[in-house]
Amino acid sequence: MHIRDIGIGAEPPGFNSRLSALEKMLDDYAGFGFRLVELDPAWFGVIIAGELRTPQVERIVGVLRNFDLRYSVHGLERLNLAYDPRHELCRAIMLAQIEFCRRVGAHTLVYHSGLQALGDVGRGVRLSLLTDEELAEGAAREVAAFKDIAPVAADAGVTIGMENGDPHLWEYTVLDKFNRPRAELVKHHPRLRVGPIVRQLEAIDHPNAGMTLDIAHLHLAAREIGFDYLDAVSEAAPWVRHLHVNDNFGILDRGIDSEIDRWAFGEADVHLPPGWGRIPYPDVFARLPDYQGDLILEIKAGFYDHLPEVLADMRERLAGSGAKGGETSQSR
To answer: Can you tell me the distance from the alpha carbon of 2 to that of 322, in angstroms, rounded to the nearest whole number?
Structure first.
């Protein structure tokens, strides 16, 4: 592995979206020793009805310029280029996100793979499960969209990383409502596995479209669905352009959305510091020997005071795995 930088997924304490809070947060991150921060445009209201609001973006850029930091961008989690029927709006939002990346100087945009077809059903927007034909059409629609979008990203100097997903109890509840077996979850939520994302990337066939491997999501999926976790990391490895890293116990949630309420029970995607859960990080890193890129620590704001030690620990873990790069030592 060759890690360019260890970054932190920005998590404003108390979800304070004021620019003064952004400035304070970035100052803290820089003081902790981070050189890379992953931003989320959803916090700042910069995309409204599919359009990028330039004045707001320029104010954010004015804050970012005060710091010697690199940036990546985590796109909107709701965005779905496969199964959202408002396809043209979703394309517009995706293009707005790419332009946001260009303006803030971010070279990576994380996009949650659209291969999750239960969202509208779970929210009551749709009253039936998608048919096999609709599932196939949606997957093809996302590929077609990326064939158009990836060249735009390339012109902006941006690589898009399609992120794998994690399972949730509410998805099983939806299947139960329609008397479908739990084993069908992977049919309606294919991004739980690496293979469907890889097949899409093969079809897109563009150097600016790759995979964001969320190591913690994959751990939950492997434990819940029942596939070999480390073999899945190896399957993803040739396509990985970006890494999301945190820890969990591989336990399905019990219908509680608040992570604060899940920490004590050790369930679901709790975004713990690596080493606090059960993910075998030495084995994971051993399956990514050729990875070259950044590593983003997705750690929730509840662990904010631990970030300096989390960064130091990750540097030690990477050094112990033989990884190379400027962030495997304390020097800058």
So the answer is: 9
- Amino acid sitting at position 24: K
- Pairing outcome for strands 70-74 and 51-52: unpaired
Under 8 Å CB-to-CB from 233, ≥6 apart: which residues?
213, 215, 218, 284, 287, 288
Tokens of 262: 């899940």
Query: Phi then psi for 282, rounded to 5 degrees?
Result: -55, -40
163: enclosing H helix or E strand: strand 159-163
* Fold entry, domain 2-245+286-328: TIM Barrel (3.20.20)
Cα–Cα dist 297/147, whole Å: 30
Structural domain boundaries in the chain: 2-245+286-328
Assess contact for 204 and 143: CB atoms under 8 A. yes
Crossing angle (nearest 10°) for helices 307-320 and 19-32: 40
Instruction: Check: pTM over 0.85? Answer yes or no.
Output: yes
For the segment 185-213, what is each residue's pLDDT rounded down to a tens digit?
999 999 999 999 999 999 999 999 999 99
Question: pLDDT tens for residues 178-191?
Answer: 999 999 999 999 99
Residue 324 is classified by DSSP as B
- Amino acid identity, residue 56? Q
Of the candidates 249, 325, 255, 248, the one whose C-alpha atom is nearest the C-alpha of residue 294 is: 325
Residue type, 55: P
Distance CA 42, CA 60 (A): 13
